[in-house]
């Protein structure tokens, strides 16, 4: 290991954090693992197996195995490592896993990340502790949302870039604040009665309507770009919305957002909006609040005095498309 890739150790009275990121390690034979470690970061190495000494780190709270070469059999020993069962964060992102590993032993787990693998099913999540706050399973091959009903404390669920067609089995996630489902095959919005979500992404799906959000009154950020939405509807109740992204759809006019007083960012670029006539009325409640708007690559963006008209409508605007005002 050359000096540029030497491990970083942070000391209090004794070593508690060991960062071996990008050290090009194939194993940990040359590395000292102090028993006092609370965090071990092995991101971006060439590891194919777990060093058994990790199993004895009784103070360990965070373990990152991100961006290595781990396969299912290689991580299976985790299910028997009782000494580190108090782990709070386990990151297996960007490896070669084909299934959800058994992590039932970690009864205090708060963050679990298996994104960027080859996982085809969420089978096995039913064994994950109910303490979980954040679950990341993006960029896999998952076709169905399942085995998450017991995760009552879950705040963040990331399932983007999978093969999901239906939003389902979300009813019990009463604490969920962020739901990321971009790059799937979803046709209809169904929040299953959840009202607490603050951030929702359904970018790059197969939506044709924005209905289904009416009860999500806590929603602050909504991302719906790159779909087939022809009309904005079901948005008028989202009074806490700050960011609305409906770019790259099939919109011909702006509807149902005249009563959104907190709206700051509005992305409407790459649609078919023909005119700025009645635009002021369409965004009546947010005229003072809005600071960013994207409308480029709409027919209306070719109209005379396009920028000046928008600046008149929105007196506090700071950005129109790529143009930023001091």
Automatic annotation (TrEMBL):
Looking up InterPro entries in the UniProt record yields:
Leu-rich_rpt, Leu-rich_rpt_4, Leu-rich_rpt_typical-subtyp, LRR_dom_sf
Q: Tell me which UniProt keywords the record has, alphabetically.
A: Leucine-rich repeat, Repeat
Query: Which Pfam families would you find in this protein's record?
Result: LRR_4 (PF12799), LRR_8 (PF13855)
Instruction: Write down the Gene3D superfamilies for this protein, in alphabetical order.
Output: Ribonuclease Inhibitor (3.80.10.10)
Q: Supply the PANTHER family for this chain.
A: NISCHARIN RELATED, PROTEIN PHOSPHATASE 1 REGULATORY SUBUNIT 7-RELATED
Q: What is this protein called?
A: Protein phosphatase 1 regulatory subunit pprA
Q: Which organism is it from?
A: Penstemon davidsonii
| Taxonomic lineage of the native organism | Eukaryota, Viridiplantae, Streptophyta, Embryophyta, Tracheophyta
């Amino acid at each position: 290991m050359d000096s540029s890739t030497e491990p970083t150790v942070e000391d209090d009275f004794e070593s508690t954090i060991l960062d071996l990121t990008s050290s090009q390690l194939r194993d940990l034979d040359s590395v000292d693992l102090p028993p006092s470690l609370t965090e071990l970061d092995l991101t971006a190495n060439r590891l194919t197996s777990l060093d058994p000494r990790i199993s004895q780190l009784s103070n360990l709270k965070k373990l990152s195995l991100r961006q290595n070469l781990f396969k299912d059999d290689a991580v299976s020993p985790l299910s028997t490592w009782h000494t580190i069962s108090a782990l709070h964060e386990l990151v297996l992102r960007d490896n070669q896993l084909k299934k959800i590993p058994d992590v039932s032993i970690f009864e205090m787990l708060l963050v679990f990340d298996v994104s960027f693998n080859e996982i085809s099913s969420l089978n096995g999540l039913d064994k994950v502790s109910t303490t979980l706050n954040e679950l990341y399973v993006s960029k896999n091959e998952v076709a169905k949302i399942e085995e998450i009903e017991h995760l009552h404390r879950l705040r963040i669920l990331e399932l983007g870039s999978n093969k999901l067609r239906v939003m389902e089995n979300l009813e019990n996630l009463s604490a969920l604040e962020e739901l990321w489902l971009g790059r799937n095959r979803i046709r209809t919005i169904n929040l299953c009665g959840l009202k607490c979500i603050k951030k929702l992404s359904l970018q790059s799906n197969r939506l044709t309507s924005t209905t289904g959000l009416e009860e999500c009154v806590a929603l602050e950020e909504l991302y719906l770009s790159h779909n087939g939405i022809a009309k904005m509807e079901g948005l008028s109740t989202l009074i806490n919305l700050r960011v609305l992204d409906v770019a790259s759809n099939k919109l011909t006019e702006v509807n149902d957002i005249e009563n959104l007083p907190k709206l700051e960012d509005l992305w409407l670029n790459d649609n078919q909006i023909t005119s700025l006539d009645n635009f002021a009325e369409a965004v009546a409640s947010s005229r003072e609040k809005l600071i960013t708007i994207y409308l480029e690559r709409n027919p209306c963006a070719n109209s005379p005095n396009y920028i000046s008209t928008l600046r008149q409508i929105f007196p506090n605007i700071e950005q129109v498309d790529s143009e930023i005002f001091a």
